[in-house]
């Protein structure tokens, strides 16, 4: 069955302590390749049937209204896997 | 006539019976409300209790914010009914956008349970009228996702309009911006905070005080305030 | 992923017709003589489904085959005084003690050691989940948890993986269930490096009339499975199974670990309590290790008839599971209930109100047999007692470990004493900075001690205390203790010291000790020296309980705790429960008021 | 600065309680388009400099050894954003 992927990230202007802690831990391991880390979510929605435009639109709506909290997060992608 | 305060039970609510006990200890009548109903049973005020509604799985409070009773709670709150969100209840209020900003994972990553000192910043809300602004109180705090965040603009507005209701003292236990522990809406009827006033209402089962072990009852005044504010309206 | 070879259902008929077919009993952990006994019991070879059931139920973990002969002492070394308040003793999911005023307390401690090493967070979390379900199945509301932990050296790199994982797993599951954590232990010793001990205790309270037992009585009563769906979790976790033995050549993945869902379990708690209040349940059993195999055979054995189950009715998370896998699955957060046909509708209405899924698997019969069908054919037809009760019992050889004399002779009196103040200071600082004396609040601050509003004592007190009756103040106290090093030197006395310590820790709170539960963590029972340690520890505990006049109400044995051939120190964790008629009169361990006098009691 | 995205999902054969609860909530809201939901993580690593093969290899290593728990999770992607 087809899958729609929804990606959600914390808003860039807001604090992401988990990302910051992860970046700190990576630096502690001696790697200086990455200067920052941000951690968001990745949803896989299994579609019961075909992926039509209507299904994609519904996924987009769900992503914005339910899977993310628009006050603190952005939906960065809604796409067919 | 006893003031009727409803306590909503969502699947995964944990401190609901404790909130009911606190209401009774404050002299009110506790009314159990069910997440799946659209019925507020004529209550005068509402508590959204602590816990892990729906496992807090998507985001804390997110799934509960979409449950049937919340549409009634939101209308009642907009009509001026006193609503208190404690911990998970605060998260539900934020997810319902009755209060601004967001609550995220504690900055240190762990769940934390401690007796927390707070300053009451706003004593003119429905849930804080029995305090004086500047009062320092101790009530238990226990959460994994209590870090308060909002944009600088929002934070400045909250400060400017006096909407920060409580601030952490001594230790900021979760990385909350500007040490914010709780908020009120402009009207002062909707209040949310991460620490648990209902766990500081019965001597012997609250936080330690200099006087005696587990004797702290600073939380009682939240519920007494609500009762007073309901009685003042009728 | 290759497509699975079509799985041929091995029916009872087929088993009778093909006696010579080779079966992977050894891979399932059964010995040749055990397999032969199964053939004798059935009068034919077992079907693969029956083999799955026997193998998990006859595993050490489920059958107590090496420990049974020793554990009997707990039932034998008792005075009438000791059993006076015992409503349910050893053998049920958990013991139940009458604490007066119509109230009863049920508590039990259990290990989840190995899974917590493989995946610390989920292993520890599901350990809490499992023990809490034992408490629910007695008809009680769980009211608190405790955890007794043993880890390797604090400065070993792997400890940094295990400790935070275990602690956050316990914290996550217990906090999410809304159960206060009221105490426990944490100990570091390199002997536990690759074999940490994670022992979780749960305690619940009930009114006398709410007591429920795990039995299937009443012909025609329905057998209902409810809670989480069944997945491929922990298949062969109770014994050792290579899942390929069931369908060679299939590339299907079966998870090595189980993921807990505390939210599901919290809903299950409330749902079960509502079912009890409505008197909608005749018998009930939680699903732990050995899943449906265990629940069906135990319910049927404890009943008065038989049971007929249609396995196709099990709601699956993974539709590719075979019948054998469904029988062995250890998926968490499931319960099985026996319900009268008249009450089925009301039962399902409650289930529905809590958004829990349920399916009726079959019913209680008068045949005395446990019969299980799959795709229209019978794949299991056994006397349930042969699966659940009359498993093998071993009198394993014991051998006195000769090294023990040497270890005892090598006492601390041979060590150099500090001669100067500086040395003494350095030693004191070393002690103060040692992991085992250090403050444990990094752990305990991750546990909710306030929820439910009845915690009268918790960390850093010697024992936890919980109010049971909000009117009268009636309550109980609990403490867990063990010292593996003492037991290594002398398992008999070491076990008694653990008992005495837990007893004292309860007594000093102001409560009167009344009952014991224990979790016996040892190395391999096939090692005669370990078996000697085990036998001595059990004897010490049983004798100590008789002397103190408090019964063992239940517990758990965990064998095979070892790294390579090196067993852990024998670690019998003892939990003592005491009662107090008013928690308002508890005695805390801290200073209370200026001017109080200090006394030192004892010798 | 360039960003490397790491995507981590719970292993398909394991229970994903968060995804399950989310799928249940979506169904309750009246949508029957999606039959299952799984929730994983999405990391954005900010690279200090150019994305070379060595940087990608390091991101891959970090993804497997640090950003995911291989006992219960799979790394499903490591790529330049
Ligand atoms: N893993 C744990 N879980 C819960 N409580 C714990 C745990 N470890 C220690 N504690 C609690 O911390 C307190 C101090 O423990 P400890 O330092 O071992 O003291 P003691 O030596 O007096 O037993 C006790 O109240 C004990 O119950």
From TrEMBL, chains A, D:
User: Which InterPro entries does this chain map to?
Assistant: PurS (IPR003850), PurS-like_sf (IPR036604)
For this UniProt record, the keywords arranged alphabetically read as follows: ATP-binding, Cytoplasm, Ligase, Nucleotide-binding, Purine biosynthesis
One matching Pfam family is PurS
Q: Which interval of the chain is the signal sequence?
A: none
Q: Name the source's superkingdom.
A: Bacteria
What is the protein name for this chain? Phosphoribosylformylglycinamidine synthase subunit PurS
Organism, by scientific name, is: Protaetiibacter mangrovi
Q: What is the lineage of its organism?
A: Bacteria, Bacillati, Actinomycetota, Actinomycetes, Micrococcales
TrEMBL record, chain B:
Catalytic residues identified in the record: 87 (nucleophile), 196, 198
**Recorded catalytic activity of this chain's protein:** N(2)-formyl-N(1)-(5-phospho-beta-D-ribosyl)glycinamide + L-glutamine + ATP + H2O = 2-formamido-N(1)-(5-O-phospho-beta-D-ribosyl)acetamidine + L-glutamate + ADP + phosphate + H(+); L-glutamine + H2O = L-glutamate + NH4(+)
Which Pfam families did the record assign? GATase_5
Enzyme Commission no: 6.3.5.3, 3.5.1.2
Q: Does the keyword Hydrolase apply?
A: yes
What PROSITE patterns would the database entry show? GATASE_TYPE_1
Q: In which pathway does it act?
A: Purine metabolism; IMP biosynthesis via de novo pathway; 5-amino-1-(5-phospho-D-ribosyl)imidazole from N(2)-formyl-N(1)-(5-phospho-D-ribosyl)glycinamide: step 1/2
Tell where it localizes: Cytoplasm
Q: Which UniProt keywords apply?
A: ATP-binding, Cytoplasm, Glutamine amidotransferase, Hydrolase, Ligase, Nucleotide-binding, Purine biosynthesis
On the tree of life, the source organism's domain of life is Bacteria
Q: What PANTHER family does its record include? A: PHOSPHORIBOSYLFORMYLGLYCINAMIDINE SYNTHASE SUBUNIT PURQ
Describe the protein's quaternary organization and the partners it interacts with.
Part of the FGAM synthase complex composed of 1 PurL, 1 PurQ and 2 PurS subunits.
Briefly state the protein's biological role.
Part of the phosphoribosylformylglycinamidine synthase complex involved in the purines biosynthetic pathway. Catalyzes the ATP-dependent conversion of formylglycinamide ribonucleotide (FGAR) and glutamine to yield formylglycinamidine ribonucleotide (FGAM) and glutamate. The FGAM synthase complex is composed of three subunits. PurQ produces an ammonia molecule by converting glutamine to glutamate. PurL transfers the ammonia molecule to FGAR to form FGAM in an ATP-dependent manner.
Protein name as annotated: Phosphoribosylformylglycinamidine synthase subunit PurQ
Lineage here is: Bacteria, Bacillati, Actinomycetota, Actinomycetes, Micrococcales
Gene encoding it?
purQ
């Amino acid at each position: 069955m087809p899958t729609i992927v929804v990606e959600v990230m914390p808003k860039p202007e807001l604090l992401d302590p988990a990302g910051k802690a992860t970046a700190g831990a990576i630096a502690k391991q001696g790697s200086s390749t990455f200067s920052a880390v941000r951690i968001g979510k990745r949803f896989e929605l299994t579609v019961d049937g075909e992926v039509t435009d209507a299904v994609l639109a519904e996924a987009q709506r769900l992503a914005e209204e339910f899977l993310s909290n628009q006050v603190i997060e952005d939906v960065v992608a809604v796409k067919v896997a | 006539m006893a003031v009727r305060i409803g306590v909503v039970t969502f699947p995964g609510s944990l401190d609901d019976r404790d909130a009911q006990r606190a209401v009774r200890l404050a002299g009110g009548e506790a009314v159990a409300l069910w997440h799946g109903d659209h019925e507020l049973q004529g209550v005068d005020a509402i508590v959204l209790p602590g816990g892990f509604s729906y496992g807090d799985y998507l985001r804390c409070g997110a799934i509960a914010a979409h449950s049937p009773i919340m549409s009634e709670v939101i209308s009642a709150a907009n009509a001026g009914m006193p609503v208190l969100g404690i911990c998970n209840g605060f998260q539900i209020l934020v997810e319902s956008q009755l209060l601004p900003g967001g609550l995220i994972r504690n900055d240190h990553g762990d769940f934390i349970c401690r007796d927390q000192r707070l300053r009451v910043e706003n004593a003119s809300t429905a849930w804080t009228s029995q305090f004086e602004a500047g009062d320092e109180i101790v009530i238990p705090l226990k959460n994994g996702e209590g870090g308060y965040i909002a944009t600088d603009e929002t934070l400045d507005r909250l400060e400017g309009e006096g909407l920060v209701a409580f601030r952490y003292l001594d230790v900021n236990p979760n990385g909350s911006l500007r040490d914010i522990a709780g908020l009120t809406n402009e009207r002062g009827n909707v209040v949310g905070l991460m620490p648990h006033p209902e766990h500081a209402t019965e001597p012997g089962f609250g936080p330690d005080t200099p006087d005696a072990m587990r004797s702290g009852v600073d939380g009682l005044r939240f519920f007494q305030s609500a009762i007073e504010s309901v009685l003042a309206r009728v | 992923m290759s497509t699975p070879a079509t799985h041929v259902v091995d029916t009872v008929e087929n088993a009778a017709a093909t006696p010579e077919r080779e079966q992977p009993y050894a891979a399932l952990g059964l010995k040749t003589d055990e397999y032969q006994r199964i053939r004798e019991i059935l009068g034919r070879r077992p079907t693969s489904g029956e083999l799955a059931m026997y193998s998990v139920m006859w595993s050490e973990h489920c059958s107590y085959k090496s420990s049974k002969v020793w554990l009997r002492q707990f039932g034998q070394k008792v005075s009438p005084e000791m059993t006076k308040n015992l409503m349910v003793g050893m053998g049920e999911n958990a013991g139940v003690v009458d604490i007066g005023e119509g109230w009863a307390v049920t508590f039990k401690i259990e290990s989840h050691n190995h899974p917590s090493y493989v995946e610390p967070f989920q292993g520890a979390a599901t350990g809490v989940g499992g023990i809490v379900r034992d408490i629910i199945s007695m008809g009680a509301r769980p009211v608190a948890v405790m955890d007794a932990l043993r880890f390797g050296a604090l400065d070993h790199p792997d400890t940094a993986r295990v400790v935070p994982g275990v602690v956050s797993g316990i914290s996550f599951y217990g906090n999410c269930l809304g159960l206060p954590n009221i105490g426990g232990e944490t100990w570091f010793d390199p002997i536990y490096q690759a074999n940490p001990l994670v022992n979780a205790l749960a305690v619940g309270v009930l009114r006398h009339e709410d007591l429920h037992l795990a039995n299937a009585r009443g012909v025609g009563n329905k057998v209902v499975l409810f809670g989480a769906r069944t997945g491929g979790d922990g298949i062969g976790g109770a014994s050792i199974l290579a899942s390929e033995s069931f369908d060679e050549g299939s590339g299907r993945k079966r998870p090595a670990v189980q993921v807990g869902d505390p939210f599901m379990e919290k809903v299950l708690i409330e749902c079960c309590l509502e079912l009890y209040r409505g008197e909608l349940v005749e018998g009930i059993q939680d699903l732990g290790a050995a899943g449906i195999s265990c629940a069906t055979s135990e319910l049927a054995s404890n009943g008065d008839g038989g049971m007929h189950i249609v396995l196709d009715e099990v709601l699956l998370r993974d539709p590719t599971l075979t019948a054998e896998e469904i029988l062995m699955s250890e998926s968490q957060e499931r319960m099985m209930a026996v319900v009268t046909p008249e009450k089925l509708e009301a039962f399902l209405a409650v289930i529905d109100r809590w958004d829990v899924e349920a399916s009726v698997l079959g019913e209680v019969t008068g045949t005395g047999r446990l019969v299980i069908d799959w795709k229209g054919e019978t794949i299991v037809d056994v006397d349930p007692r042969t699966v659940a009760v009359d498993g093998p019992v071993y009198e394993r050889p014991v051998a006195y470990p000769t090294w023990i004399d040497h270890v005892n002779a090598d006492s601390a009196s041979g060590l150099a004493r500090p001669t100067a103040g500086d040395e003494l200071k350095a030693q004191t600082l070393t002690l103060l900075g040692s992991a085992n004396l250090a403050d444990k609040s990094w752990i305990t601050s991750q546990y909710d001690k306030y929820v439910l509003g009845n915690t009268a004592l918790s960390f850093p007190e010697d024992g936890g205390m919980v109010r049971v009756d909000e009117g009268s103040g009636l309550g109980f106290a609990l403490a867990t203790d063990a010292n593996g090093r003492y037991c290594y030197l002398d398992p008999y006395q070491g076990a008694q010291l653990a008992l005495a310590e837990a007893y004292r820790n309860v007594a000093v709170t102001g409560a009167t000790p009344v009952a014991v539960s224990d979790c016996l963590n040892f190395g391999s029972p096939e090692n005669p020296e370990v078996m000697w340690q085990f036998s001595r520890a059990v004897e010490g505990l049983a004798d100590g309980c008789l002397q103190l006049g408090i019964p063992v109400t239940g517990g758990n044995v965990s064998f095979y705790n070892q790294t390579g051939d090196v067993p852990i120190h024998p670690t019998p964790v003892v939990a003592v429960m005491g009662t107090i008629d008013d928690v308002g009169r508890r005695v805390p361990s801290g200073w209370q008021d200026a001017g109080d006098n200090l006394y030192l009691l004892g010798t």
